[in-house]
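User: I've been trying to design a sequence by hand for this structure and keep getting stuck. Would you show me what you'd pick, starting by listing the structure so we're on the same page?

Assistant: Good idea, let's start from the same input. This is the structure you sent:
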């Protein structure tokens, strides 16, 4: 006599379990991706606020705020509260990235590429959290601070790419403009990256060290690095203007030309802020606005380059149907 045993189905991981019970709409998927973009910018701006208020060592260790407390203590004052508040925003960022991962995994049909992009965001966030801890342990070493910002920029890149991919299909990309125009787009992207990297050198050698104590600085003349940064900015502006003109000549799609126009507007505002802050001795409010502008410029460049190709959404073929009147005719 055989003993009855209950049938046990396959054990699902949490993401697969949620995916079986929830299907996000395309709009929900896009909003989840956009939330990750917004939070990746917010964490950069608030991180800049930590440095500009001299709160970089408000929490003097990591991952705790002090040797004895996970949280900021009254003895650390406002600087501890600011630094600890920025650390707490990392959890909000993780929640936004987690929402993007869950939405991508639950989409029907499942798109593996979106899920991979979501997990890439997660690992960048974790890596930057560790690098942030190293930055605190090394007493705000300027090279570590620069790496912290560049890794945050890579997060903005991936979140922006994910946001764009939620509005595309899984087909192979196809160009929307001639090859020379696409090469100009890559030149614009590379030069913009040089511009951002030069900006970290300006920051690393400038007066805002991130803490009121003695903090090491990069051994470069600040005025010279600022001039190099300005030259790179002018090159980016020239390439952006060239791209805008070329896209009109080749009669590029309207949305691509709109991306080029948006980039020019953001660059104009960013350039104005940059020169004003230089001649007014770097007031904290303008430096913070310039950091926000840096994020917006990079997003505009990435979106412009992505708009030079397309991945159309595949439309399922509808099988031919027989006219009922003909099928019933005798």
């Amino acid at each position: 006599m055989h003993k009855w045993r209950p049938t046990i189905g396959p054990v699902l991981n949490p993401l697969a379990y949620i995916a079986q019970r929830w299907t996000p709409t395309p709009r929900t998927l896009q909003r989840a991706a956009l939330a990750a973009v917004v939070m990746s910018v917010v964490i950069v701006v608030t991180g800049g606020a930590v440095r500009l208020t001299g709160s970089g060592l408000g929490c003097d260790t990591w991952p705790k705020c002090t040797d004895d407390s996970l949280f900021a203590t009254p003895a650390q004052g406002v600087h501890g509260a600011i630094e600890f508040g920025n650390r707490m925003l990392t959890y909000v960022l993780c929640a936004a990235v987690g929402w993007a991962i869950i939405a991508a995994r639950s989409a029907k049909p499942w798109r593996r590429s979106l899920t991979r992009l979501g997990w890439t965001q997660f690992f960048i966030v974790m890596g930057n959290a560790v690098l942030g801890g190293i930055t605190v342990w090394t007493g705000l070493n300027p090279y570590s601070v620069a790496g912290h910002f560049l890794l945050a920029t890579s997060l903005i890149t991936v979140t922006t790419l994910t946001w764009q991919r939620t509005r595309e299909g899984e087909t192979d990309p196809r160009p929307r403009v001639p090859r020379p125009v696409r090469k100009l787009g890559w030149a614009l992207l590379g030069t913009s990256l040089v511009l951002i990297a030069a900006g970290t050198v300006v920051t690393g050698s400038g007066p805002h060290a991130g803490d009121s104590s003695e903090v090491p600085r990069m051994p470069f003349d600040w005025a010279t690095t600022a001039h190099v940064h300005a030259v790179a900015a002018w090159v980016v502006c020239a390439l952006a203007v060239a791209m805008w003109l070329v896209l009109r000549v080749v009669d590029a799609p309207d949305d691509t030309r709109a991306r080029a126009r948006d980039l020019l507007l953001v660059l104009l505002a960013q350039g104005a802020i940059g020169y004003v802050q230089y001649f007014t001795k770097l007031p904290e409010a303008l430096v913070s606005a310039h950091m926000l502008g840096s994020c917006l410029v990079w997003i505009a460049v990435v979106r412009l380059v992505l708009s030079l190709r397309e991945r159309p959404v595949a439309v399922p073929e509808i099988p031919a149907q027989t006219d009922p009147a003909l099928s019933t005719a005798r």
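That's my pick for every position. To get oriented when you compare it with your attempt: Residues 77-106 form the longest helix (30 residues). The chain has a mean pLDDT of 87.
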